[in-house]
């Protein structure tokens, strides 16, 4: 969403376990627009998603 590739998440491994258990959900940690299928096309279609 910010025009850069970032694979870091704002939640920890224990948060992820809570997501799986159902005691927490990702909407508390990520914006709604950042979750699910990508509907809008990329602003820069040549953006590279390789990990450094």
Describe this structure in words.
The protein is mainly alpha-helical. Helices cover 17% and strands 0% of the residues. The chain has one helix at 13-21. The longest helix has 9 residues, at 13-21. The model has no long low-confidence stretch (mean pLDDT 79).
* Mean pLDDT, all residues: 79
Count of beta strands: 0
**Unreliable stretches, pLDDT < 50, 5 or more residues?**
none
**What percent of residues adopt helix (DSSP H or I)?**
10-25%
What's the tally of helices?
A: 1
Structural class: mainly alpha
What would you call the quaternary organization? single chain
Short summary:
The protein has 52 residues and is mostly helical. The protein is built from one helix and no strands. 0% of the residues are buried.
Topology of helices and strands:
Blueprint: H1 13-21
Key descriptive features of the protein:
elongated, single chain, 17% helix, 52 residues, mainly alpha
